[in-house]
Amino acid sequence: MFDEKLKEGFLLKPSCPEDHGVWKDFQPKFDHTFNLYNYEKFFKEMLLKTSVRYIKELVTIVEYRHIFGCVFDDDGPIGLEREMQIFKDV
Q1: How many CB atoms lie within 10 A of CB 90?
Q2: Please, are residues 24 and 70 in contact by the beta-carbon 8 Å criterion?
Q3: In angstroms, what CA-CA distances link 2 with 7, 8, 10?
Q4: Interatomic CA distance for residues 68 and 80, integer angstroms
Q5: C-alpha dihedral over 40, 46, 47, 48, to 10 degrees?
Q6: Contact between 39 and 72 (Cβ < 8 Å)
């Protein structure tokens, strides 16, 4: 009962207008971190660190939910083949 009450208090419900403003203060951070995490050098580093952490925690199945085409370098998007190579390398 207590868990359900907590869950109900934390879940955002689209039908509840007051909940939509919750993310307003976080949006600038999301915008900055999205670009930072998807810059090729940092993307590879974050992917490696995350993977190593999972291994140390004995996680046996990991499903990465990645949006292809978002990783970029100084010249723009890096392309699907190079992006896939990052996953293979890591």
Answers
A1: 15
A2: no
A3: 9, 10, 13
A4: 7
A5: 110
A6: yes
d(CA 47, CA 89): 10
Two tokens, residue 87: 């996953």
Instruction: Give the other-Cβ count within 10 Å of 8's Cβ.
Output: 9
The full set of domain ranges for the chain reads: 39-90
Hey, what are 63's tokens?
């499903």
- 48-76 pLDDT tens trace: 999 999 999 999 998 888 888 889 999 99
SS3 content of the chain, % helix, strand, coil (to 5): 60, 5, 35
pLDDT tens, 1-44?
A: 767 766 676 565 555 555 567 777 777 777 777 778 889 999 99
